[in-house]
Amino acid sequence: MRAPRRIALARLPTPLQPLDRLSAEIGGPRIWVKRDDLSESGAGGNKVRKLEFVIAEALHQGADTLVTCGGLQSNHCRATALLGARLGLRVELVLRGELPEDADGNLFLDLLAGASVHAYPARRYQAELSDLLEMHAARARASGRCPFIIPTGASDGLGVWGYLSASEELAADFRAAGIRPRHLVVATGSGGTQAGLTAGLHLHVPACQVHGVAVCDDAAWFRQKVLADLGDWRARSGSTLDLGALRISTLDAYIGPGYGVSDAATLATIRRVARTEGLLLDPVYTGKAFHGLLQELEASRLRDAEDIVFVHTGGIFGLFPQRAQVLGTP
Ligand SMILES: Cc1ncc(COP(=O)(O)O)c(C=O)c1O
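# pyridoxal-5'-phosphate complex -> structure
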């Protein structure tokens, strides 16, 4: 298998930490959190692990400009904006939606990091995303720059390496903590984190099943996306891993009203975890995923081991634009 290029951007390894107060309250397995929210400061979260591989390839190709895309509150865009600034690269962001007068959360940080922001109405964005990315790349080329396009969430055969290698780190964490979890729960949005963990744990901790908690789209969509990203990874890396042997699990009952919108029960979980453990979850990704984990335990599922693991993928800046809903005040 061909080893990928990599640039060290994240603070690794991240801690694996038990949530003892919450676990005692729930009376089930001991809940552990892999603190990937601590993988960096402003650029923290799951994206920095993927971007270590994606940006390394961009630099290898001589890029001086990163072009990528996402929602107005995209954590991936914010991480790319800040890492681009750190490396002296220009960053062009193609965003879905209408720019608000007062930029908050991730969008505020995109602007603070000096990224160029181009927003398009949701319909046009959905219909023309690849053309829009190409157009901004072409504009960069026309002004003498060398652009590199990163797909949504850095989820492709290159980004998958981020959580393939995180799986080795998790195997070492489990050995050090003396635990044998049978379930690992993580938020899934563009599928790359789920794909990397599903293949990575299959290789390094085969007794532990990955469950992606969908924040948008259904289990069928994620199955196809995970297989597509891993198929791309196989083709690029020369891996012979049998994708048919993978157990791809997506829990799609916790999406709530839609992408970016949480229901009252999820918001209550966010408050509960902040108040019981001092741990911050966000209303778009980790809040839904952690709420899903608690609901599964409540329904007597995922309880067949003494320990269960949640991967905290970051995203806390997404709390700020939704401050009133999160606090439960109108
Ligand atoms: C905080 C957070 N958690 C989880 C995810 C899901 O990761 P992925 O896009 O790899 O599915 C994302 C991005 O989509 C994210 O920003």
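# post-check
The beta strands are 16-18, 30-35, 65-71, 90-96, 116-120, 147-149, 183-188, 209-214, 249-251, 307-312.
The chain has eleven helices and ten strands.
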